[in-house]
Design brief:
alpha/beta, Rossmann fold, Isopropylmalate Dehydrogenase, 2 domains, 42% helix
Length: 324
């Protein structure tokens, strides 16, 4: 664990994880949160939950077929002594039981194991017995890019495939709320398209303009929006200056709102594989944060996903009124 949690300093390579290191250190500052881990039946899924527990972030409740979970532990060479385990016959039952633990107040977080994301999110979004709120759920990548000064959010790259304007409003608000909940302050939000001018030929530019007007009218709160912006204009001051864009957001964006899931997924993975970035993942807009990781994620990215979820859950709990 020392390798994952060591603060970064010195060379660019050493500074690679400094943003994540700060988030993880902050999340470890108080009692770990009980977390329902749905179907952690392979080595990588189980290791992610156990690493987060060892770091003091979560108290995992492993939900799934007991024999498969214990087989994964044996493969890792670790003991599950002292770890709560709720036996369920298969992945579908595990997803339902994990959601039920949240309803029962026994879990403050939900974490995806080795089941498919759709299987877990189907249980989350059920009208009866799910974890729905008035908001549409959405996914946020929290990305540590070594060459970018800001912690970068990309949304939505995993849940909403072709969101309409109403869905994009929720996607933007969810991301802003997460940024605020992590203590990162009011964010600068870039609504991305292929160009920085509004044109009917590109519907994403129309949506971008509408979202900015919605923010002006108080339909989106807590952040500063601008768009449409092309990717270079959103993150490069030089590119924005060349195009003559005068904006508090352009060149300094902290949240990138993509037109659709395909664009967001490709952008996040490009940063991961070409820019040496790590991408933590979280689903927001439900009753509790949902840690959504991939088997391809690094150990640090998995840990950072848990840290982000813990920080956001605590912030939400602090905002809830105390019942008399």
């Amino acid at each position: 664990m020392t390798d994952l949690l060591a603060p970064a300093s010195g060379s660019a390579s050493a500074r690679r994880h400094e943003k994540y290191a700060r988030l993880i250190a902050e999340a470890r500052g108080s009692r770990p949160l009980p977390t329902a881990v749905a179907h952690p039946c392979d080595a990588s899924a189980l290791q992610g939950a156990l690493d987060a527990a060892a770091a003091g972030l979560i108290e995992p409740i492993l939900v799934g077929p007991q024999h498969k979970i214990r087989a994964a532990a044996e493969q890792l060479g670790v003991s599950l002594a002292g770890v709560a385990l709720l036996d369920q016959p298969h992945s579908h039952a595990a997803a339902a039981a994990a959601v039920a633990l949240v309803h029962e107040g026994k879990a403050a977080l939900l974490m995806k194991g080795s089941l498919h994301s759709d299987e877990l999110l189907t249980e989350v979004t059920k009208r009866d017995g799910g974890l729905r709120t008035e908001r549409r759920i959405s996914h946020v990548f929290v990305i540590d890019v070594p060459t970018y000064a800001e912690t970068l959010f990309i949304t939505d790259a995993a849940v909403n495939i072709f969101p309409d304007l109403e869905a994009k409003r929720d996607i933007v608000q969810n991301a802003i709320d997460l940024h605020l909940g992590l203590g990162l302050g009011p964010p600068r939000v870039a609504i991305l398209s292929a160009v920085e001018t509004v044109t009917p030929k590109l519907p994403s530019t129309i949506d971008a303009a509408a979202l900015c007007k919605m923010a002006e009218r108080g339909q989106i709160t807590g952040g500063l929006l601008d768009g449409p912006l092309a990717f270079d204009n959103a993150i490069s001051p030089e590119a924005a200056a060349i195009k003559g864009i005068r904006s508090e957001v352009a060149g300094r964006a902290q949240i990138l709102v993509v037109p659709d899931l395909e664009a967001g997924n490709m952008l996040a993975k490009n940063l991961t594989y070409f820019a040496d970035a790590d991408a933590a993942g979280l689903v927001v807009g439900a009753r509790v944060p949902i840690v959504l990781t991939s088997r391809a994620d690094s150990a640090r990215a998995r840990l950072a996903s848990c840290a982000v979820a813990v920080l956001y859950a605590r912030a939400r709990q602090a905002m809830q009124p105390v019942n008399a």
